[in-house]
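In keeping with the milestone schedule agreed at the kick-off meeting, the structural modelling team has produced records for the first pair of proteins. Each record is given below as a sequence line and a structure-token line. The laboratory manager (R.T.) confirmed that both were archived under the project's standard naming scheme.
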Amino acid sequence: MSLGKRVSQSRFGRAVLVWLYARFASFVFATTRWRIRGREDAEALIRAGQPFICAFWHGRLMLAPHGWPKGTPIHVMISRHRDGESIARATRHVGVVPIRGSRTRGGMAAGRASLRVLKGGGYVAISPDGPRGPRMRVQPGIIALARLSGAPIVPYTYAVSRRAAANSWDRFVIALPFGRGAYLWGPPLHVAADADESARESARLTLEERLNELTAEADRMVGAEPIEPAGEVARTRERRAGAAPAVARQ
């Protein structure tokens, strides 16, 4: 085992790496020239004491907590995996309260905890494509949470002009300092308590479309190449070739 791997797997080593990551993220945020658009709806909900669910893609996690309205606690669902523990520790530096669990580990407990937060008037942030994807494709859990809680879903994203994209399932955006950035918010999406399966699927597709459009727009605003959702490249090629899509749209 290499020295670097031993360090990253030790408790002390991971604590140091988490501290460095949190400081680097704060440094990048502070040295980036930001534009903010569309946050008025979210701020109006906060002023009215109306809880809501903030939805952002897993690949845009690094600086997502920094764009949240200051002074308003936000609970974020984070995986119970070891990497999730590191993320939970790092996000505590910017006032995030982690809810441990995901659709693959501790999902039911995390869902109940999120529901309690929303019923208590709090705010919950979820990456609806995490923790394993497919990238930028909404999974049904967030729609179920909105239906049960009565809280609307607010799409949210950011983009930076100076970045590297990790070779991971989510193409995780590693933001770099001294660039331009944009935080974009979308209008609230409501899911009725009596929504049937068709209505829930329609809401899921609407959220996915809005969040992808918002993310692509943020990338364009800063001059970055938009990152395609999983499967989109193949579908684009098929459309250009005039072929029938290999996977039907749902």
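The second protein of the pair:
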Amino acid sequence: MDIIRLGGTERRLYELVAPLVMDAAVIRQNNGYPFKTSDKYVWYVACQGGTARGFMPLKRSACRVLIDNYYAEGDDPEVLALLLAAAVKGRDGGAELAAMVQKRHVDVFRRGGFETVAGLKNYDKMTFAMKERAEGDDTSA
């Protein structure tokens, strides 16, 4: 499976993800929320055989990068983990990386280095915490 990085308004992005983001079943899986994009977004798209199997958009603001409204076909944890690893690796160095994570995906994000900062009804608000661990903070072990 290939992970492709695309700008939020690139033509190729629309070609790859339109069949998914316009699918009623995919929108239901996203708790009814539509998928949004602009030039402030970078998308990671998991492709297999030329077909998108998942995506993870990151929205950049002045001080953070937010993962929100992502999708993996069949809730495949492997696809989510690949997308998450690409997003972590490709994010801006000093920017905080935050995510609104559906409850059923919290374990995948934890394994990817995130920790919960707030639990909501359907989501966990999480932040990437591996930086602190990499710098020697071993208190969570």
